[in-house]
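Continuing the batch. This is chain 6 of the set; chains 1 through 5 are on the previous pages. Same settings as before, nothing changed between runs. Recording input and output for traceability.
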Amino acid sequence: MARTPRVIETIAGLRKAVGTYRKGGAKIALVPTMGALHDGHMSLVEAAKKKAARVIVSIFVNPQQFAPTEDFSTYPRTMDDDLARLKRLEVDAVWAPDKTEMYPDGFSTRIAPGGPAYAGLEDAFRPHFFGGVATVVSKLLLQTAPDFAFFGEKDYQQLKVVTRMAADLDIPVQIVGVPTVREEDGLAMSSRNVYLAPGERRTAPLLHRTLLDCADKIKKGQPLNRVMADGGQALTAAGFVLDYLEARNADSLEPVTNPGQGPLRLLVAARLGTTRLIDNIAV
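Output for chain 6:
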């Protein structure tokens, strides 16, 4: 019978649980989430279970990474369903602090990441975002003291920011990226997909298909700038409002002008109606 994960809501309780795991000699993995769990999150948990005897999933909708115009108040919160999913995978603990536990009165410190946080991708459209991510992830890593922490490649720039931050701050954790999980039609799984209207949902998979088409043309030797321009035009013609469609060095996220500056990663962000979608693939 699957065991119900222990829900921990205080730092004192978390540290006691982590101490118990450590006394038993167990490796610990952390899967940070904002809840509204889907199969993409479950792939992170499954990867974590292969690396560590104890798995902690954090569920915390982080207010510091939402701008005033974004969807913090309406972001989906589905704790009962989330716990049922995690029970099936026999997660050991769920770290679910409230806002005052994570950011108590007087909290005034914020991480200011550099490097990949200033690649001109997500940061150009959400300048507040990576400071909020870096602050909460650094706290989660220090609170849970895991050996491994798992992040999805769908948020590729975020993965690079967190990896750089942990290295720069000498946080003793291995950051592990896990491939994007997709719907049958190729749409990257995201908690925000529920916001898509039926017609928008039918159009949304074109985002991934355009990335695949661009990658194929690049591999066949077509000029990189023309390929990316044509891809952007195709998305705009389909009704997307494009924020960016870029070819970047997969390691540094620096802009590239030819495939020889690779390995390459294609990254895209665009809006359908009120829903903002992101995706990326390797070339």
